[in-house]
Structure formats: structure tokens, C-alpha cells
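Researcher: Hi, I'm a grad student and pretty new to this. My advisor asked me to get structures for two proteins we've been looking at. I'm not sure of the right format, so I'll just paste the first sequence and hope you can take it from there.
Model: That works fine. Here's the first sequence with its C-alpha cells right after it:
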Amino acid sequence: MNTEASPSASKTRAFLQMPLTRLIVGFLLVFIAVAIVQTVIVALPVSRVWSSILLVGFTVPVAYGAYYVLVHFIERRQMTELSASGAVRETAQGIGIGAVLLGAIMLILTLTGAYKSAGANSFSVLLRPFLLAVSSAVFEEILFRGVLFRIVERSLGSWIALAISAAIFGGLHLLNQNATLIGAIAIMVTAGITLGGAFVLTRRLWLPMGIHFAWNFTLSGVFGSAVSGNPAAQGLLRSSLTGPDWLTGGTFGVEASIVTVIIGAAVGIFFLWRASKKGNILRRQ
């Protein structure tokens, strides 16, 4: 029996192993699968809470499944970046880091008089921001760090991959309702570097997922602030932001504040410094 692969099969396998091919296929696999699911769920005649529950219940496994197809059937390797080893610990660390970061930012804004709270709402308002934060953290980290950053990094090195992924991640936030160019640039500098740095440091997606989740949930669910240009939802704290846009972030939200940019960039640089010390920075091949 001839067990050798046919020339056409070998060419197909070689084509699928090309970095650009894997990048395009992986991005489309994850993005389209999740987009279809979310479009169907949003169109369902259900309450906002049930819509959020369904979004989490389907987005997370669909994003994971699409990524599994890319890794196991196209790249033909083990999915180490989502291995169970260290998952709970690194996710918890990320949640702690994200919550502390937002807490520090809001404390500074409170001390400057920009952020003011006038009481609290029921804890029930936390449910929907919690669910949406889980959904966006898993989906976006798999797409931007798991697919985009990781594949580009293998060919062009960590620094170029960080610049490209941060630029695309921030640029796509221009599609949000109250998006601004300053806000998109701020996302590039803060979230792009911080989340990319968290991945390089651990070589797994759990830490950036935890940071991403805590960032969105704390900002929206706890402090009641707009997230990346999306209108502010009702949070646990009844709050308001007043002052110049460079301090408050304007309509884009706190993420465009100079306070957030400085603190976020500092944390991202720290992650990258630690990653360099561990020898995790890849050079261009």
C-alpha cells in the first residue's frame, strides 16, 4: 500500500502552513463563526439579559472550537496557549491585575474631581456587564492574540507583531458608536501593548483574558463608564465624569484618558521587560 502523500496533497499542506495563509484562515474561521452566532442571537426576540446569557453560552465555545480547528487540523500542533495547566491561576492573576488597574485609574480621576459617584444601584445590574465582559474577553483574545499576534510573531518577531496587532486592535475600535481617533490610538497604546505583553510573558492566553475581562467588567459594571466608545450602561455606582476630554476621555470613555494611557502603557512595558528577562521575545526569522 502506498502511504506517501500525493503531490497535490503535499502542496495543499504546504500552502496551509504558510504564515499568511494560516493568518487569513484563522482570522476568518474565528471571526465569521462568532459573527454568525452573535448576529442570530441578537436578532432573537428575547430580553437583553437572556441575549447576554446566550451570547456567552455560544460565543465562548464557538470561538474556542474555531480556534481548535485552526490549531489541530491546519497547524497540526498542541494548543498549548489554552492548556489547562495554569489556567485558573493565570486567569485569576489577570482579573486581579485588570481590577487593580481600573481601580487606580478611577481613584486618580476621583482625586482630580473628574469622576464623581452619587450612590449605588442594585447588584443585579452587574449581571449583564459580567456576561458581556466574558464573551468579549474570550473572543477578542483568541482572535487578536491567539491568531493575529501569535502567527505574525512567528515570522516577523515580537516587536513587529506587537505593533501590527495593537494597530489593528485599536483601529477596529473606530467602528464603535462614539469612537474617536484619540480613543483608538489610546487603545493601541494601552490595551494593545498590555494584552500583547501579557501573552508574551506567559505564552498563554489566560492572563490577557483575565485582564481583558476585569478591565471591561470593572469599567462598565462597577464604575458605570463607557467602554471603548460604546454608550455607558448602568453600573453598580451611579457616576458621572466631568472635565476636559484629555482627562476624562470624552465620549469614548475613560480608556482615552491620559491617566489610562500612562498607567496602561507602563504596565504593558513592565510585562514586556519581564518577558525579555525570561527570553520570551522572539526575533524576526
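Researcher: Oh nice, that was easy. Here's the second one.
Model: And its structure:
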Amino acid sequence: MSLKHLIIGAVVAVCTFVAQAAAQKNELSGILGRTFVSDQGIQGAPSSDPDLSFGKGLTFEVNYARRVADAGLFSLALEVPFVVNADEDVHAYTNPFLGYRSYFVTPAARLNVFPDLAVSPWVSFGGGFGHFSGNSGSGLSTAGTTTGALQGGLGLDVRIFGHFSLRGEAREFWSGVPQLNVTTGKSRQYNLFAGGGIVWHF
């Protein structure tokens, strides 16, 4: 093998390694789960049915993240979770068929422990906005509310093969409240999303 071929081969190998190393800085994940919202008391409601009761809406998340710092034992990534609760059922004494959809986009910083090992726990914190839309409880009318939202989360990534991991996570979105034509006296609510899915590292 000539020196020229050896140099070309070395350059190709280095470029391939660099490309793979750079590729590992990015993630795309898909998560499926449920959103849980605590019941809320309705002001002036009859004692037989005093609460605004929420269902457990089927929810999905799409998340892009990029690793921006690596200290061996820890790594820091910037992520953009987009979480959609497509159908949150709500019961109130005025109307048992309330419901809404919610959307959260909360750019965040995520800290992973043991990021390059088979099992990596993590915590996340960020903020952005949420939007609620759907049945307001007044016939066919709809109500839409856009609100600021804070997000805190924790999870566990488990490598399965190649560039793929399994992820289990829980994220709490502290947001405003949907407009449902009942008075609870609250201006904020907790929306707990718990789910699992797959992560592609590239």
C-alpha cells in the first residue's frame, strides 16, 4: 500500500470517527404516556358533586436534544420537549362532558449522569408556553388559553442496541388553567406527564 493510500485511509477513518462522535451529540425521541391533573374544588358547587375531575389523557411527546457539554461523569444537553395531550376529559356538575386539548413547548436544560454508560438517569428543567383549547362547557363554543409554563422532569435512559435507547420519564408542567366555565379559584395547575418510549442518538 502506497503512502498516498495510507494517508487517504487515515483521513477517511478520522473523518468517519469525527462524524460518528458529532452524531452522538444529537437525540430525537418519541414518548407515549398519560397526563394526570389533580381534581379541583368548584366554588359554589353542590356538596354532592363539589369537584372538577380530570381524566387521564393519552399524551405523546416529541423531543429534540443536543449535547453541549461533557464532563465524563455528567453531560449537559439542551432539549425541546413538545408534549400534546389530545383529549383530556373533564367532569363537572354543570356538564359531565367537558374536555380540552393541551400543548406544551418548554425548551430546557437536561443533566445526565453516566451519559455514555448503558443506564443513564437524568433531570430536566426549563420553561416555555402551554396552550389549551376545546369544549368550554357552553354548547358548541370553544375556548383557547395560552399561558406560560415551567417544566421539571426526571427520567432514565437504557441503551438497547446501536444508536437506540429506551426512555422512561415523568415531567411536570406548571401552567395556567383551561377555560371551562367553572370557578375553582385557581390560576395555575400541575400537569403531570408520565410515559415511555424510544430515543435515537445520531
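Researcher: Is there anything I should tell my advisor about the second?
Model: You could mention this: The first strand starts at residue 26 and ends at 36.
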